[in-house]
Amino acid sequence: MSVVTGDAHSITYRFEGRAVTADLLRVGRISSATAVLRRANRQPGHRVLVACDFISNSARSALLTETDVDLSVGSTGELVLSGKTLKPPATPPPATAHRSRRRRAAERVCLLTRERLRQVDVAAAVAVTQQAVSKMTEKEPLPETPMTEAARRDLLTKLSLVLADDGLVETYWYGIDPVMEQVRSSIRLGAELSVQILAGGEVAADVLQPWRVPTRGLVYAEELVDLSVLKLVEATAEEATLTLRVPADPTVWTTATWWRRVNEVQQQSDIATVDPVIALQDLNASADLGDGAPQRLSDWIVSR
Q1: pTM value?
Q2: Secondary structure element (H or E) that encloses residue 83, with its range
Q3: What residue ranges do the domains of the chain occupy?
Q4: Alpha-carbon torsion 24, 28, 29, 32, what sign?
Q5: In the Cβ-directed half-sphere of 249, how many Cα atoms lie within 13 Å?
Q6: Which of 26, 55, 196, 264 has the largest CB neighbor count within 10 A?
Q7: 3-class DSSP string for 129-163
């Protein structure tokens, strides 16, 4: 399956050789399928893609019995389109996955800070309560900050092994302008639409520690945005010069906001990025070009 196009209201994806249009319905937490279906504005010939953060087992089962309903669940990564499960629910239960994401976000903040952080500071950076930070440290304390270079390298090695967020959904675009400009234009478009968009991958790495001319762009967006207004055309994942990803992990936004607040380079740049550890995970997940860019970014994170 590949997404052909999409915006804040609908997506069109290719399934078994045919284009399928689904209207988007965004819900935070679903406990009743009846209430959700009542809100859905079903149209003949269109499916409805229900995108939610959490869903009860009973509501999930009820929605999946509807022949014209697709489902995307952020907390488990499950994706069901046209009756086919493309991504089964992740092995960890929702609460565990959520706690793991917040723990990794707190570790990213500890690794990147150059100041001594209290629990209340970490909580503010990750956008959780101080009680939540206290609870996550009951079995395993967070690192003392500021960390030593050796400790940062050890923690970064562990975090680098975490798979990059492959998103709730991605769309793929091709353009002839330089990749850096495609990303810059996407961020400007997001600002006009009040949709937060951040640079990830090669472009984020280039903003943070220039090394290679980016050949593929990756942006994280709060919701689907139609980039055809930027004179980009729909493409396959292999052909794309720019990928737009709606992330499953909400801490992408919180740590990026904290990073922009504490980093002077980010404050002065017109390209807002994900935090450096997320950018490194993106590089590690992409094709190895053999130019040492991931190692260079890793060394910079550790020793800057």
Answers
A1: 0.73
A2: none
A3: 2-87, 93-304
A4: negative
A5: 23
A6: 55
A7: CHHHHHHHCCCCCCCCCCCCHHHHHHHHHHHHCCC
Please spell the DSSP secondary structure of 169-196, one letter per residue: EEEEEE-SS-HHHHHHHHHHHHHHHT--
What is the number of other CB atoms lying within 10 angstroms of the CB of residue 235?
A: 18
**What residues contact 148, with CB distance under 8 A and at least 6 apart?**
none
* Residue 44: partners with Cβ closer than 8 Å, 6 or more residues away: none
Nearest to 122 by CA among 135, 280, 194, 281: 135
CA distance 53 to 57: 13
Nearest alpha carbon to residue 272 among 209, 220, 198 = 198
- Give helix then strand counts, H and E, for the chain: 12, 12
Long-range contacts of the stretch 32-41 (C-beta < 8 A, 24+)? 32/56, 32/59, 33/58, 33/59, 33/60, 33/62, 33/63, 34/62, 36/63, 37/63, 37/66, 37/69, 40/69
E strand or H helix at 298: helix 293-303
- Specify the residue for token string 């019995």: 65
Residues 52/72, Cβ–Cβ less than 8 Å: yes
Amino acid at 91: T
User: Nearest CA to 220 among 242, 192, 193, 194?
Assistant: 242
**What angle separates helix 179-193 from helix 201-208, to the nearest 10 degrees?**
100
How many Cα atoms within 13 Å fall on the side-chain side of residue 35? Answer: 11
